[in-house]
Structures are given as C-alpha cells and as structure tokens.
Design brief:
268 residues, Rossmann fold, 11 helices, 14% strand, globular
C-alpha cells in the first residue's frame, strides 16, 4: 500500500475514533492519537501478516498501554476480524468492544491496562515461538511512562538474553503521563542510550511520519536479535484542543464549538 494511502487511513481513523469518544463519553484520545500512524503502518503496511483463510492475524500485537487498545478497533473492522455491526453498536447497543482491550475481543492478543507487563508477556510468547520454530512475530507497543516500571527493564533484559529476533518493541514517547511531563515527574532521557546500553538495536524516529515508521520496520525485519523503535509522538496528535495537554489523557466534556474545531482539525 502507498504511503499516501496510509496517511489517509490514519486521518480517517482519528476522525472515526473521535465520533466514538463523543458517543461513549469516555476513552483516552491523547494516547490513542499518538499511536495511530504506528498501528496503521503495522497492519496496513503488511508487517502484521493476515491469514485470509482463517480470518485472523498470524503475528501478535500487544498494546501494553491498554487504555489505547481501541486504536486497533477500526483496523480489526476493516480486516473483517470484527464485524461492522460490532463497530457500529459500540456505544449504542451490545458490542464486545470496550475502552480497554481484552482477549474476549477478536484480534486482541492480551488483556492489558496495568502498565509494565507487555514486554515480559511478549518476550514469553516470542521465546515459545522461537523454541518451537513457529513463524510468528510479536510486536509490543509501550508508553515511555512504562519505563518507570522495573518489570519493563526485566523484560528487556530477558529478551536480549534470549536473542528474540521475533520480538519487535515500539516505545511511544509522547513525553506526557497523567501527572505531567516525564521530565517533571521522573527524567527518563537519554532513553536511547539506556536501551542501547543493554545491547539492543535501537533507533529514534518521528512516530507520525509514515515513511520513517515503515522504513524502520523494514530495516528491523532483518535484525537477528531483539530490536526497539523509539517513536517520538505528540499526545492528542491531530486535535489542536488536545495536543500536548496532560488532561486529555482522559476524555473531557466538549462544547459544540470545541467539537466543531476538532472535527475540522481531524480533516486536515
């Protein structure tokens, strides 16, 4: 698929998710909007392989920041893993879709939400596939706030020790957690130096630049070891009212003028 097509898909998904936020009056738009280009590149770029015969994905995607898992729902709908009816009903009628993802939802590979778990869980999956010679990759998307968790570093050490080439880690660095900026709460930088210091192949990119995301995913496909992409992003990307604002970690009530402005922003 062409890069311009992926950009248009990302724009469409932001708009569709906004309408769901309005409908459900809940969600985490800041965190979802910061990873839209990443998940679009993974799935629509063909890095996450799809088995049309079984109507399921061959590879695993774990969204460690579980409050952003719903970024995958329009993707799962477009691949036919969940039905259009299930998508339409979300927020109005009975539907399996939830604000936080869980394994009762087709296409969701882990129940997440408690932060700091998915590198460890993903490494366990990847080790199983490696030892049993199963051709599956595991993509794990975490927030940089999860670097506050010791379990994240334990998972990285375990993955490196076992040379898990089938484990691909992406860290969404939007520089904000619920309490404020990561620099104010507990400095993490230089993140790249710390992860490289573990012997892990690491590269920093613009997480909203589809070209950079796809090119780096292609580059890292051939690395015979665990790898990590550091994606610099903007919390609430695409919506001027939300961008770089910590309180938009959660959904906030909006008046008609704010809704109008945001709808126009998301069309640009």
């Amino acid at each position: 698929m062409k890069i311009n097509d992926l950009k248009e898909i990302a724009k469409k998904y932001r708009g569709e998710m906004f309408e769901k936020f309005l409908l459900t009056k809940q969600g985490h738009p800041g965190s979802i909007y910061s990873i839209i280009e990443i998940v679009v590149a993974l799935y629509h770029g063909g890095f996450v392989r799809f088995n049309e015969k079984d109507n399921r994905f061959t590879d695993k995607v774990l969204i460690s920041k579980g409050h952003a898992t719903s970024a995958l729902y329009p993707i799962l709908r477009d691949f036919g893993v969940i039905s259009k009816e299930q998508w339409i009903n979300w927020g109005t009628k009975k539907s399996p879709l939830r604000i936080f993802g869980n394994t009762s939802i087709p296409g969701i590979d882990i129940t997440s939400g408690s932060l700091g778990h998915c590198i460890g869980a993903g490494a366990g999956m990847a080790l199983h596939y490696k030892k049993n010679k199963i051709d599956k990759k595991v993509f794990v998307i975490i927030s940089e706030g999860e670097l506050y968790e010791g379990s994240t570093w334990e998972g990285l050490l375990f993955a490196k020790h076992n040379k898990l080439a089938n484990l691909k880690i992406i860290i969404d660095i939007n520089n904000l957690i619920i309490l404020g900026t990561t620099d104010e709460c507990l400095k993490l930088n230089p993140i790249e130096d710390k992860i490289k210091g573990l012997g892990i192949k690491t590269k920093t990119i613009d997480g909203h630049d589809i070209d950079q995301v796809t090119n780096t995913l292609y580059e890292f496909q051939t690395i015979d070891d665990v790898s990590c992409i550091l994606a610099n992003t903007t919390k609430g990307k695409g919506a001027s009212i939300m961008e770089d604002k910590k309180h938009w970690h959660y959904w906030n009530p909006m008046d008609e003028e704010q809704i109008k402005i945001t709808r126009e922003d998301l069309k640009k």
